[in-house]
Amino acid sequence: MTLEASTTRALDHRLATEQSRQRLPSVVAAVVRGGRTVWTGAAGTLDGRSAGATPTADTQYRIGSISKTFVAVEVVRLRDEGRLDLADTIGVHLPEVPFGHVTIAQLLSHTSGLQAETDGPWWERTPGDDWAGLLASGVALRFTPGTTFHYSNAGYGVLGELIARLRGAPWHEAVQHGILDPLGMTRTTRRPVGPSAPGLAVHPLADLLHVEPEHDHVSMAPAGQLWSTTDDLARWAAFLGGRVEGVLSTDSLAEMLRPVAVNDVPGAAWTGAHALGWQTWNVGGRRFAGHGGSMPGFLANLRVDTTTGDGVVVMANATSGLGTVAIDLLTLFCDAEPTPPTPWHADAHHADALDLAGPWFWGTYASTLALEADGGLRLGEPGQGRGARFARDGDGWVGRDGYYRGEPLRVERDAGGTPVRLVLASFVFTRTPYDARADVPGGIDELGWH
């Protein structure tokens, strides 16, 4: 895909504006569509000086908590291999932890109740300790597991050890073999491999810089140590947009992106939630997934529209200051280069289920059943009341979303083959309210409608 020159100029200008207005030493970005990078940009210099070197799409930046998404995908890969269950308590696999009743799913979604950070020195700016040292520091619960969202870097240290224990290799080697290599992400590493940006802090009241330290955080590394480039993170955005390349099944990726816990701040409206290792957002009905990242000297953001697969990645070498540039770039791109609509065409397979289409009644509630373009069924309007979509499941159907997600739908026909009942999660739908031709649980009053 070749962008219009005006689109490229607008994206370049927005990124340059961010670097100037937010006082960032350097910032790089990329936009992805159809699994490919369609634009990359850079502004500023690596050392923040006017004569410094300009970053490129191959310059490494530290991605902070975006590292957690790789850890989470590797955990789900282990689940898909039958090595664990997300409902397992962590004590099943790491019997030495004092919070063994916490589940793996709770650790992934930050609902374990585990403390946010370690009890030692500021772990992001000091050398790390090993697994035994992390446990010895007294990592403990702050909340009852499963009752609230509480972001936990320490929890991802635990998940890193889980991977290492089950893979028989350090977590980063497992991620390298199972994720990075298959996706061709050759420039995503545990420690910086040049060319790389230095981690810098900008004085809030003066145009001065301060070099931030960089260490191996060992047991806490899974929480935020990986380094990457815009080229590599664009591949990760493509993965998130559905180009899984055999690393994970599309069903497992969809499972990972279902919101689990709302990041609720009393008194403020919320639009974001956490899923299994990923952040999710609902902006005016438009669904996004991705993750932010920050470590001393670095900021990063990855966001993908889960409907279209369009995505953006942004990285800067500053401790603070990154504004709304990620979503601004993606919005600017999508407004200037809208995704072409999928052409409509007739589908002969719809004839197989055409006799199901039309009105159905649950008691006196009326719904319309329609056939979807993908061969599924749509009952009512998804997102409104108990409206839902259904996919084929053997001889029947299964709910894809809404109240009936995961619930079975069975079609019952009379001797002539005419559908007379829909049995949905034990509820019965009939062609007319309390249809006398159908077996309605509880029976029909002998007076009928009167």
Number of helices: 10
DSSP strand count: 20
Largest sheet: 8 strands, antiparallel
N-to-C SSE series? Answer: HEEEHHHHHHEEEHHEEEEEEHEEEEEEEE
**What's the pLDDT, averaged over the residues?**
95
- Radius of gyration using CA atoms only: 26 Å
Distance between the termini: 65 Å
Helix content: 10-25%
CATH topology of the largest domain: Beta-lactamase
Strand content: 15-25%
CATH H-level homologous superfamily name of the largest domain: DD-peptidase/beta-lactamase superfamily
Report low-confidence residues grouped into runs of 5 or more: none
Number of domains: 2
Which class of the largest domain in CATH terms?
Alpha Beta
Name given to the CATH architecture of the largest domain: 3-Layer(aba) Sandwich
Keywords summarizing the entry:
450 residues; alpha+beta; Beta-lactamase; Lipocalin; 2 domains; 8-stranded antiparallel sheet; 10 helices; 20 strands; globular; DUF7586; Class A beta-lactamase-related serine hydrolase
Describe the structure.
This is Class A beta-lactamase-related serine hydrolase. Residues 16-322 form the Beta-lactamase-related domain. Keywords: Hydrolase. This protein is an alpha+beta fold. It has ten helices and 20 strands. The chain has helices at 5-21, 67-80, 90-93, 104-108, 131-136, 153-167, 171-183, 230-240, 250-256, 325-336, and strands at 26-33, 36-44, 61-62, 200-202, 209-211, 227-228, 261-262, 272-274, 279-283, 286-295, 298-305, 311-316, 358-362, 365-371, 377-379, 388-393, 396-399, 408-413, 419-424, 427-430. The strands form four sheets. The protein has an eight-stranded antiparallel beta sheet with strand order 2-1-12-11-10-9-8-7, sandwiched between helices. An eight-stranded antiparallel beta sheet has the order 13-14-15-16-17-18-19-20, with no helix packed on it. Helix 1 runs antiparallel to helix 10 (325-336) and helix 2 crosses helix 7. It is globular.
